[in-house]
UniProtKB/TrEMBL annotation:
<feature type="repeat" description="WD">
    <location>
        <begin position="90"/>
        <end position="131"/>
    </location>
</feature>
<dbReference type="Pfam" id="PF00400">
    <property type="entry name" value="WD40"/>
</dbReference>
<dbReference type="InterPro" id="IPR015943">
    <property type="entry name" value="WD40/YVTN_repeat-like_dom_sf"/>
</dbReference>
<protein>
    <recommendedName>
        <fullName>Mitotic checkpoint protein BUB3.3</fullName>
    </recommendedName>
</protein>
<dbReference type="InterPro" id="IPR019775">
    <property type="entry name" value="WD40_repeat_CS"/>
</dbReference>
<keyword id="KW-0853">WD repeat</keyword>
<dbReference type="InterPro" id="IPR001680">
    <property type="entry name" value="WD40_rpt"/>
</dbReference>
<dbReference type="InterPro" id="IPR036322">
    <property type="entry name" value="WD40_repeat_dom_sf"/>
</dbReference>
<keyword id="KW-0677">Repeat</keyword>
Length: 389
């Protein structure tokens, strides 16, 4: 497998939160903690659009080939005109916005935030159609398939019918005691797959929601030599839209693995990335897979993009994937959290653009955990952990 290293003319200056292919073309969105939304054209290997904003971008989605939305750390939902490169504030939450999804079936935009609210929007209006309150925890991940909305809250997955949004039609705790990191829908609304922070995957197939609730759970990360499983968070999952049951997982140790949900077997494991895989996305035809792997150096401010071609994965088909590597910049002045950061979203909220009167409750709370740089220098932290300067 050969790789080609590409460079952006203006490097991505911070970690990548999400990558998404367009619904019909081979363009994909890149949302990043550096506040910019980028549109990359794979066919011509060019960056078509780069739109800066005022806050970290925690998620992104397409409405169509020309319009996109982002979930932002300053409590805003932003709308982007990709043809003109402009954006405006579409809506708001009471705390940072963690997830954004668009349903082409119902023409609704769905957003969720750390205010524990899930909002449904008509994109022709800036007033929400519906607003639900999650009782126990913030929404960590969402996915839309047809009229179904999958929502990961704590260790549970709730499913809502977007045509009747007042209550969930399905709710199941998948990983008792462990938070779900991501949830994605199986092709043709056949079910869903969820990944947890302890490295497990849960597959749920259904035709109708019945009392017979069969879920297949397995570990993504291989056992160590002593027979124990490593606790390695599953950061993202992506289903191939062309091959039924085929999906890939990306984890915190830098592994990307292809699975067959029908046979419950691992198909392929790509060479390990040197840092965690943060996002995955297939194009509309299933021939291209984009992989985002974010680095965190103590020095430097660069981003690389490596392209690989993988042959003979299944039925002689050529599979291509793209790796976008982001380097988070660590300065020599500032503030640091007093302990390793496990939750990426909390790292964003704690590190992003300290303000005199931050709009988010998360920012206000996080400042109480801050220690001065002088105190930081008296402590030793392992290099492989992630800290905020």
């Amino acid at each position: 497998m050969n790789g080609t290293c590409l460079k952006f003319e203006k490097p991505i200056r911070d970690a990548i939160s999400r990558i998404r292919f367009a619904p019909e073309s081979n363009n994909f969105l890149i949302s990043s903690w550096d506040s910019s939304l980028r549109l990359y054209d794979v066919d011509s290997f060019t960056l078509r659009v780069e739109v800066p904003s005022e806050a970290a971008l925690l998620d992104c989605c397409f409405q169509n080939e020309s319009v996109a939305f982002t979930a932002c750390s300053d409590c805003c939902v932003r709308r982007y005109d990709l043809d003109s490169g402009t954006h405006d504030t579409f809506g708001n939450h009471d705390d940072l916005v963690s997830c954004v999804e668009y349903s082409a079936e119902t023409r609704q935009l769905i957003t969720a935030g750390w205010d524990r609210k899930i909002k449904s929007w008509d994109t022709r209006s800036t007033n929400p159609l519906e607003c639900l309150k999650t009782p126990f925890a913030e929404v960590e991940s969402m996915a839309v398939s047809g009229c179904n909305l999958m929502v990961a809250v704590g260790s549970s997955v709730n499913i809502y019918d977007l045509r009747n949004f007042n209550k969930s039609v399905y709710a199941k705790e998948l990983f008792p005691g462990f938070q779900i990191r991501c949830v994605r829908t199986i092709l043709n609304s056949e079910g869903f797959v969820a990944g947890s922070i302890d490295g497990r995957i849960a597959c749920k197939y259904y035709e109708v929601f019945t009392s017979l609730d069969t879920i297949y759970v397995f570990w993504c990360h291989p056992k160590s030599k002593d027979g124990r499983h490593h606790v390695v968070p599953v950061n993202d999952i992506a289903f191939n839209p062309f091959i039924s049951g085929a999906f890939v997982t990306g984890n915190h140790k830098g592994y990307v693995t292809t699975w067959d949900a029908h046979s419950k077997r691992r198909l392929l494991e790509l060479p390990r990335y040197s840092n965690s895989v943060t996002s995955l996305s297939y194009n509309h035809g299933g021939q291209l897979l984009v992989v985002a792997s974010s680095y965190a150096y103590r020095e430097g401010n660069e981003t690389e993009t490596i392209f690989h071609k993988i042959c003979n994965l299944k039925e002689g088909m050529d599979w291509i994937y793209f790796e976008v590597l982001s380097v988070a910049y660590f300065g020599n002045t500032g503030w640091i959290l007093g302990q390793p950061l496990v939750n990426i979203a909390k790292f964003i909220a704690s590190s992003a653009w300290r303000m005199p009167n931050p709009p988010c409750q998360v920012w206000r709370d996080s400042t109480r955990l801050m220690a001065s740089l002088e105190e930081c220098e008296r402590n030793h932290f392992p290099e492989e952990m992630l800290y905020c300067y």
